[in-house]
Amino acid sequence: MSAHCQVTGARPQFGKRVSHSHRRTSRRFNPNLQKKTYDVPSLGRRVTLTVSARGIKVIDARGIEAVVADMRRRGEKF
């Protein structure tokens, strides 16, 4: 499974690591992903999501029901 947030869609970003002598090499900025389990009353079961820290804040603000409804509209699997 690729490293992406199921709620916000955050994926790894790419950039350069710059040394003291200013040599540049490639590096990867990974999102802060966590596996979280939520109880979703409308589905009647628990759902385990791979979400970023920002995705957890979105769920706390909007509620798991609204987020799951948006995910189902997009066709996201959970």
From TrEMBL:
Skewed-composition ranges (Basic residues): 17-27
Top-level lineage group: Bacteria
KW Ribonucleoprotein (keyword) present: yes
Disordered: annotated span: 1-31
Segments passing through the bilayer: none
Gene3D superfamilies: Ribosomal protein L28/L24
A GO term from the CC aspect: ribosome
The keyword Ribosomal protein is annotated on this UniProt entry: yes
InterPro entries for the chain: Ribosomal_bL28, Ribosomal_bL28/bL31-like_sf, Ribosomal_bL28_bact-type, Ribosomal_bL28_sf
Keywords assigned by UniProt, alphabetized: Ribonucleoprotein, Ribosomal protein
Family of the protein in this entry: Belongs to the bacterial ribosomal protein bL28 family.
Protein name in the entry: Large ribosomal subunit protein bL28
